[in-house]
Amino acid sequence: MAATLLVASFAVFGAMYLAPGSPAGFLLSGRSASPEALAAISARYHLDDPFAVRYLRWLGDMVQGDFGRSLTYRTEVSRLLADRLPTTLMLITMALCVVLVAGILLGRIAAVRGGAVDTTVLVATTFAVGTPSFVAAVLLQGLFAVELGWFPSSGTGDGLLDRIRHLTLPAVALALYLIGMLARVTRAAMLDAFDSDHVTSARGRGVPERLVIRRHVLRNALGTVLTTGGLIVSTLLVCTILVETAFSIGGIGQLLELSTSTKDFPTVQAISLIIVALFMAVNLIVDLVLPLVDPRVTLGTRGGTA
């Protein structure tokens, strides 16, 4: 993880300097400036230092928790992240809960019931997978916020309950695509488990069907479902930028979009590296939990080593 973060930090830092324009041009807001003024701005923000020097200085500050100073907001990036990160984490948590509950439940129903129910779930999940998050955001806003007035169309609200109410539509818009994907993965994994020998043996011993589904089919399918956890979280982290912008939510997704358009290098680099770190942490957790859900992973590794 340390090596991957190091490579990612170099890519994040270097990519910003490949973009057209410059921070100095933004700071001047289109006004003309003398060479002396440009030199003063470059010296203040270390823009005239060699690339390697700027990268090593930035990396050293990041390790110490210093994300630099925002060029747009004229304040510390760490303060911006502290104000906005909790909102984004709450939105992602709500969306993840919706994805896990709805996705696994729909996949289980489709695999167990079959027939018309299975076809209905497949059609519904096809629609969900084919609907981008920003399209879902517009549709949900128009129906439940504008027409019905059940939920607010923007903002984050005050207090826990009001914040949950404000984040409900964004969470559903963020989760819709992933619900369809997870339902299909769960359905396919359970159908594959139904054909395994141990399920046939359990049925032959007279084990009740509900216990067969819970202990032998669903539990074996959870290993496949869990491996998609990294993909689900990474998709949530990326799509939250579009959803937060559509619903005017003051999270790090909207902050990243605004900072990118204004070439606020320190803010973009800090948020990008945090997203990479969160994605890696989720994959590490999945790798650690997977042997607990499916012991065959550990047994297979030991067998391969032997």
Automatic annotation (TrEMBL):
Keyword Aminoacyl-tRNA synthetase applies: no
Superkingdom classification of source: Bacteria
The keyword Transmembrane belongs to this UniProt entry's keyword annotation: yes
InterPro entries: BPD_transp_1_N (IPR045621), MetI-like (IPR000515), MetI-like_sf (IPR035906)
Entry's family note: Belongs to the binding-protein-dependent transport system permease family.
A molecular function GO annotation: dipeptide transmembrane transporter activity
Species per Swiss-Prot/TrEMBL record: Streptomyces qinzhouensis
GO cellular component, one term: plasma membrane
Annotated ABC transmembrane type-1 domain residues: 85-286
TM region(s), chain numbering: 89-109, 121-144, 164-183, 221-250, 270-293
Official protein name in the record: ABC transporter permease
CDD domains (UniProt xref): TM_PBP2
Coiled-coil ranges (or none): none
Keyword annotations of the record: Cell membrane, Membrane, Transmembrane, Transmembrane helix, Transport
Predominant location category: membrane
Compartments reported by the entry: Cell membrane
Membrane protein topology class: Multi-pass membrane protein
